[in-house]
Amino acid sequence: MLRLKVFTFNPFLENTYILYDETKDAAIFDPGCYENQEKTELSDFIEREGLNVTHLINTHCHIDHVLGNAFVKAKYGVDLWIHRNEIPVLKSVSAYAPNYGFAGYQDTEPDKFIDQNQKLKIGNTDLEIRFVPGHSPGHLVFYYEQSGICIAGDTLFQGSIGRTDLPGGNHQTLLRSIKSELFTLPDDTKVYPGHGPETTIGTEKEYNPFVGKRSTFQ
Q: What start-end ranges are recorded for coiled-coil regions in this protein (predicted)?
């Protein structure tokens, strides 16, 4: 049975997720922990639950989602997985991090690249990977059908969508990605976004002002 733990870190109020199953193998998605107390909160949970961290994954590589990459890599000895299209996004973070108040940001190199056609195996659990560019050029989401869970990063939020005014973003591409890769999931799928509360596919299909049935912005 897949379990999910969410932490909200850094001034951007970014959601970091840990997914794990009965084997206690775990994947950390988008570690936004920057301050020492945030790192301690993450590591204390992992220790308390007796988890074995096997994967470090970025849905995409904007600053708020990668602040804890170096910490997780060093502490748990895991590889960093990203989509290949996110390489320039990740590499650019060190140049602008001080401007956002993150002078202590530590740069990291990706170790492995995720293809949207593969599966991500965590313990006994296989997650489906979907390619959803638009907010960033190599954005990925991760879906587990049996539990109806989708780790959505910054694609779809409760009542909103990811911003597309950053380098590599494209509004129409994001709308197409959401409709073809997220809105084809069952309506009761729980969407766990990169910021804010969870929502469901059905709710956003109906009410989201950008991509829902009643949208006037498409």
A: none
